[in-house]
Amino acid sequence: MSKITERIINRYVKIRKLLEYEGISVYSSKINCPFHNDLHPSAYIYEDETGDTIYCFSEAKVYYPYDLAVLYHIDVDALYVRIVDEKGLELPEVKPRRDKYLENIPSLAGHEIHAWFRGIKKLVELMDARRGIQG
């Protein structure tokens, strides 16, 4: 799952459709919150052209279509592919990012790696000793 998957689902999937897919009839925008046991409607569906949201007044929390899809165990990757195909979306190619921490680790030979890790371990021990942590 990527941020693009989440954004596309939140933009194009309608909350009412997800609820109906799960067999929940929605007659108005005020509903029982699907994210917790609700005796009385405590949530409201907000619909607009940028995407739907559910606001739960008892939790003071906003939920999106992606959250609802995950709650109902809907395959979000398949949903994403379906949306992209149906809408004819052309998405930018996502390049895998390198971990910024790995970029700072020098390229070392085998014996140098052991020495490098021993140095790191010694540094951690010194920092713990300063803080009074026994190892």
Put simply, the count of helices is 6
Q: What is the average per-residue confidence, as pLDDT, rounded to a whole number?
A: 83
Strand content: 5-15%
Query: Can you tell me the overall shape?
Result: elongated
- State the low-pLDDT regions, or none: none
Strand count, sense and barrel status of the largest sheet are:
4 strands, antiparallel
Biggest sheet: strand arrangement: 1-2-3-4
- The helical percent reads 40-55%
Domain tally: 2
Radius of gyration (Å): 24 Å
Task: Please identify the structural class as seen in this structure.
Answer: alpha+beta
Q: Number of DSSP strands?
A: 4
- H and E order: HHEEEEHHHH
The N- to C-terminal Cα distance equals 38 Å
How would you classify the quaternary structure?
single chain
What does this 3D model show about the protein?
With 135 residues, the chain is α+β, with helices and mostly antiparallel strands. It has helices spanning 3-12, 15-21, 65-71, 76-87, 100-103, 110-131; strands at 30-31, 43-46, 53-56, 61-63. The chain has a 4-stranded antiparallel β-sheet. A hairpin with a 4-residue loop joins strand 3 (53-56) and strand 4. Helix 1 (3-12) packs across helix 4.
Quick synopsis:
The chain is α+β, with helices and mostly antiparallel strands and 135 residues long. 46% of the residues lie in helices and 10% in strands. A hairpin with a 6-residue loop joins strand 2 and strand 3 (53-56).
